[in-house]
Design brief:
Number of strands: 15
CATH superfamily of one domain: Multidrug efflux transporter AcrB pore domain
Largest sheet: 5 strands, antiparallel
Strand content: 5-15%
Distance between the termini: 68 Å
CATH architecture of one domain: 2-Layer Sandwich
CATH class of one domain: Alpha Beta
CATH topology of one domain: Alpha-Beta Plaits
Number of helices: 19
Oligomer: single chain
Radius of gyration: 35 Å
Structural class: alpha+beta
Shape: elongated
Length: 652
């Protein structure tokens, strides 16, 4: 791996939660100092008390990343780098927190807040004390109404599922790269000279836009986004920095250019913003592709224009274009072999004459002292436009006589596709499209699929999304399975650590509120659930569960070591762990803020991650502090019921 957008994004977000272990360790040691222990003893006892909790937090966090590491496809390769970067950061943080942090605490933290503390220290300490007191008093009220709390918990789950279904889905966020790739297309029977004039008109209009800094224009040749051909061209448009284009995004500039370019008749320019991630090998005029394939070429040529015409009326998409060019001019030459034999004209001589006239044949090289020049043979370009000019081409006959080519060749005009594309050796046609601003990819693909199904195509034609749209469809279908995989992996790890099947359920119960907060944040900011936002939800699964781990671990220790009842233990655990929970949550939340407010290249890729993390942490911090103790007591009662029955039977 290398230092790139994904690894830097992982390092930026890891700053917020790799400090969690150290925060928990230092807070516990500081609490021991407040109880009168000496610094060395407080650090040693604090590490012993909290070591298992730190290990549980880190291992379950790594378990949540496991499904991302084993994803397949393009998205899997990208997220593997992100996940492994986070995993190694967490591992190093855990080792440091269990070794170096206690040592630093033992030697450098000599006492609690003293009389020499500043006013800021006292203000912070007073605010935290009042927050703990408020939380303790409200927690007592909540524990008296467990049914209402459970109702809120199940309502959270239902609302999370509903929002997940209704939140628009997307692929990767659209980068405001400041660079636009355009593909021009004219009629299939256009000449090179006419195409050159139309291309220049488009280039002049593009350059007149105040947001455009420069343009590169290529005509014909080896192809570009839309393929090769004399009726196609490519434009590379560089935009000015955002500050010099009034803050307009690349997509908004494209939309403005699109409205100005329609007045040029006979040619179209299809544009899309250059992206860091673009999957699929098929070249196309637009950013997303829908491919029709069939072994019956005639049937494919019949239905391809019908599908393309229907897609032009689909809401939410624009720049609909097909790679099919059916109107190319074709001239078929038929040799009259009997007449050619009678005149002594060989087929090879006919072929050579046509090559000399039309194929720009190199016949020699002229060398000079400083340069060399290629000698290319062709007829005058004015004789290359009309088939009747074949009368001006002669071939050698019997006795060295020159025979007009039209004497031994008959020609027939017809129309033919300029190219026939294939997908996996099967003839295919790709219809490409772009999205209108603020239209999610999921909405567009759903509308296209519904429109195509209404056409009732024959079974011998298969239609499917390819490239970005196809990879999005495959990835979005696996998202619920990835979430389930993360939950199962974390449950197994916690079950092994706690040697219990019940307590991991209490910890996992903290997760629905995180999903609810993330989806609400996406709805409020009008952000689709892209791959990056989904990664944020996976991260929340690993981050939010630490609240439950710290509470449950302390409550179990209080029950086993001091003999407290379940209600007393969970209440004390919530009160004591409130401060480290608040500090770790705020650390992770503030780490997400730069991802949201940052500007510049690549920020669009990272922004959904920050939005989901901030929203999920904010909502989960409020709900889990009240729902977790109630669920802990409920599961504890269910767990103790079989034990009570087992003790009662011998007495009967």
């Amino acid at each position: 791996f290398s230092i790139d957008n994904l690894s830097l994004m992982a390092l930026a977000i890891s700053v917020g939660f790799v400090v969690d272990d150290a925060i928990v360790m230092i807070e516990n040691m500081y609490r021991n100092l407040e109880h009168g222990m000496r610094p060395y003893q407080a650090a040693l006892e604090g590490a012993r008390q909290i070591g298992f909790t730190v290990l549980s937090i880190s291992l379950s966090l790594i378990a949540a990343f496991t499904p991302l590491i084993f994803m397949d496809g393009i998205v899997g390769r990208l997220l593997r780098e992100f996940s492994l970067t986070l995993t190694f950061a967490v591992v190093v943080s855990t080792v440091v927190s269990l070794t170096i942090t206690p040592m630093i605490c033992a030697h450098y933290i000599k006492g609690v807040t003293s009389e020499n503390a500043t006013w800021f220290d006292r203000a912070v300490e007073g605010s935290l004390s009042r927050m703990v007191a408020f939380y303790s008093s409200t927690l007592r009220v909540v524990l008296d109404f467990p049914f209402m709390t459970l109702l809120v918990f199940f309502a959270t789950i239902a609302l999370t599922v509903t929002l997940y279904i209704k939140t628009p889905k997307g692929y990767f966020p659209t980068d405001d790269s400041g660079f636009v790739i355009g593909s021009t297309r004219a009629s299939a029977d256009i000449s090179f000279q006419s195409m050159l004039g139309l291309q220049q008109q488009l280039a002049d209009i593009v350059m007149a836009d105040p947001a455009v800094a420069g343009i590169g224009s290529v005509l014909g040749g080896g192809g570009g986004p839309g393929g090769s051909g004399s009726n196609r061209g490519v434009m590379f448009i560089s935009l000015k920095p955002p500050a010099e284009r009034s803050g307009m995004t690349t997509a908004q500039v494209i939309d403005r250019l699109r409205k100005n370019l329609y007045r040029v008749a006979g040619i179209r320019l299809f544009m899309f913003a250059a992206q860091d991630v673009r999957t699929g090998g098929r070249q196309s005029d637009s950013d997303y592709q829908y491919t029709l394939s069939s072994t019956d070429l005639d049937l494919l040529q019949k239905w391809a224009p019908i599908v393309g015409k229907r897609m032009e009326s689909v809401e939410g998409i624009t720049d609909v274009s097909s790679d099919r060019d059916p109107g190319g001019l074709q001239l078929t030459l038929s040799i009259d072999r009997q007449k050619a034999s009678m005149l002594g004209v060989r087929v090879q001589d006919i072929d050579n004459a046509l090559n000399n006239a039309f194929s720009q044949r190199q016949i020699s090289i002229i060398y000079t002292q400083r340069n060399q020049y290629m000698v290319v043979l062709e007829i005058d370009p004015k004789f290359q436009t009309d088939p009747s000019n074949l009368e001006h081409i002669f071939v050698a006959g019997a006795g060295g006589a020159q025979v007009p080519l039209s004497t031994v060749v008959r020609y027939q005009r017809s129309l033919s596709p300029l190219a026939v594309f294939h997908s996996q050796s099967i003839p295919s046609t790709t219809v490409s499209f772009n999205l209108l601003p603020d239209i999610p990819l999921e909405t567009a693909t759903t509308n296209i699929q519904r429109a195509v199904e209404e056409l009732h195509m024959p079974d011998s034609i298969r239609g499917s999304f390819e490239g970005n749209a196809g990879d999005f469809g495959r990835t979005s279908g696996r998202q619920p399975l990835l979430i389930l995989g993360a939950l199962v992996a974390m449950y197994i790890v916690l079950g092994v650590l706690y040697e219990s099947l019940a307590h991991p359920l209490t910890i996992i119960s903290t997760l629905p509120s995180a999903g609810l907060g993330a989806l609400l944040a996406l709805q409020i900011t009008n952000t689709p659930l892209t791959i990056i936002a989904f990664v944020g939800i996976i991260l929340l699964i690993g981050i939010v569960k630490k609240n439950g781990i710290m509470i449950v671990d302390f409550a179990l220790d209080a029950e086993r070591q001091r003999g407290l009842s379940s209600a007393e233990a969970i209440f004390e655990a919530c009160s004591v762990r409130f401060r480290p929970i608040l500090m770790t949550t705020m650390a992770a939340l503030f780490a997400g803020i730069p991802l949201v407010i940052a500007t510049g290249p690549g920020t669009e890729l990272r922004r959904p991650l920050g939005i989901t993390i901030i929203g999920g942490l904010f909502v989960s911090q409020i709900l889990t502090l009240y729902t977790t103790p109630v669920i802990y007591l409920l599961i504890d009662r269910l767990r103790r019921r079989p034990e009570t029955g087992a003790i009662a039977r011998p007495a009967e």
